[in-house]
């Protein structure tokens, strides 16, 4: 990161990456596979981008029912990871 005016954005993106690679994502979903081979990236190839959009929508609804700020932040970080999987899918189709 060499642009300090975006440092807070980079911090959040790193948090999302860490949540996927060190936290819930690795524990529940990785099975030792690279991110691009995990279900989060495989499913949209089968079902289309809507598979990710559904998950993002579901997470959004869950956030509205949470009272603990850290839980809300974690759900938002998960949304970022789903969105990143969407970018990976679209880039792979170029």
Index terms:
0% strand; mainly alpha; 94 residues; globular
What is the gist of this entry?
The chain has one domain (4-92). It contains 5 helices and no strands.
List the helices and strands and how they pair.
Elements: H1 7-22, H2 24-30, H3 39-47, H4 50-64, H5 69-92
Description:
This protein has 94 residues and is mainly α. It contains 5 helices and no strands. The protein has one domain. The chain has helices at residues 7-22, 24-30, 39-47, 50-64, 69-92.
**How many E strands?**
0
Distance between the termini: 26 Å
Count of DSSP helices?
5
Strand content: under 5%
The tally of domains stands at 1
What level of helicity do the residues show?
Answer: over 70%
Give the rounded overall mean pLDDT.
91
